[in-house]
Design goal:
Blueprint (H helix, E strand, L loop, with lengths): L5 H14 L9 E5 L10 E5 L20 E10 L10 E10 L4 E7 L6 E4 L10 H8 L11 H18 L10 H6 L11 H9 L10 H6 L2 H10 L4 H9 L4 H13 L4
Antiparallel strand pairs: 1-2, 1-3, 3-4, 4-5, 5-6
Helix pairs in contact: 3-8
């Protein structure tokens, strides 16, 4: 059993994360440590990930038991708080997680001056899907769902309405309220909580966005809830789009339904 103290373990992970942000290393990476100890050697493995969607490429993967740390290195952009309209600054972020749940996030950025290393603190959700994905790779639970399932059904409903309206023939009569209401396939959250929805998706009985049955099975309820909601555009954006596609009376009936469901 490792004798590394939590503090030295954190320091070592930060040092490794910082090394992975070297300017000579490019592209998104998956990182694994098979073992590490205080002052001793460690077995580090690095593998390139697809640049177009590196995090999704990890869905379904389960790390071997001997891997005690897993993480990713990705790129992005940032803005100065006092010049939000300025040119974006390229940022490279390394995130490492060990099986005890210890997380380390380090970002490297550089603009006109020398590159800077920045420790990232706060809610891991600020890193998007990265923490959830790394936790599932290590077989660790993610944080519970934050949103009610009614938000999922609302997003799904609006998406289905837009698809139906856009797919109609030119000159066809406007989609009526009854037809729109029938496109809502939601159920009360007390009847179908996130756990039920995920299991149905994993069994191939329900399609939610682009989540495959195998990915739904690999996720836990928390990650599934966040990924499912991310499959759809923002609610307000879709409602605005629908103002140009539906009669005003029908649109207001949709909003009334969403208000009854406590979504808006």
């Amino acid at each position: 059993m490792s004798t590394v103290s939590p503090r030295s373990r954190s320091e070592l992970l930060r040092e490794i994360a910082s090394l992975l942000l070297d300017d000579e290393i490019e592209g998104p990476l998956a990182v694994a440590l098979a073992d590490y100890s205080d002052g001793g050697p460690f077995d580090l493995s690095v593998r390139a990930l697809p640049s177009n969607d590196p995090i999704t490429a990890l869905f379904g993967f389960l790390a071997p038991d001997e891997w005690v740390v897993f993480g990713v290195v990705t790129g992005g952009s940032a803005h100065h708080l006092d010049t939000c309209d300025g040119e974006p600054i390229p940022v490279r972020v390394a995130y490492l997680l060990d099986r005890r749940g210890l997380e380390v996030s380090v970002a490297k950025t550089g603009d006109a001056g020398a590159p800077m290393l920045i420790d990232l603190y706060g809610d891991p959700a600020s890193l998007g899907r990265v923490p959830d994905t790394c936790r599932r790779v290590l077989g660790l639970p993610t944080s519970p769902p934050e949103a009610d399932t009614q938000l999922l059904w609302a997003l799904d409903w609006l998406d289905r309405v837009i698809a139906d309206v856009i797919g109609r023939d030119l000159g066809a009569p406007p989609l009526g309220w009854r037809a729109i209401d029938l496109l809502h396939r939601g159920r009360p959250s007390r009847v179908a909580p996130w756990s039920i929805i995920r299991r149905e998706c994993a069994a191939g009985l329900l399609e939610i966005g682009g989540i495959s049955a195998s990915d739904a099975q690999w996720m836990d309820d928390g990650m599934f809830s966040r990924q499912a909601l991310a499959e759809y555009p923002e609610l307000c954006e879709t409602l605005v789009d629908l103002t140009a596609l539906l009669p005003e009376e029908t649109w207001h009936k949709m909003v009334d339904r969403l208000q009854r469901d406590h979504v808006v």
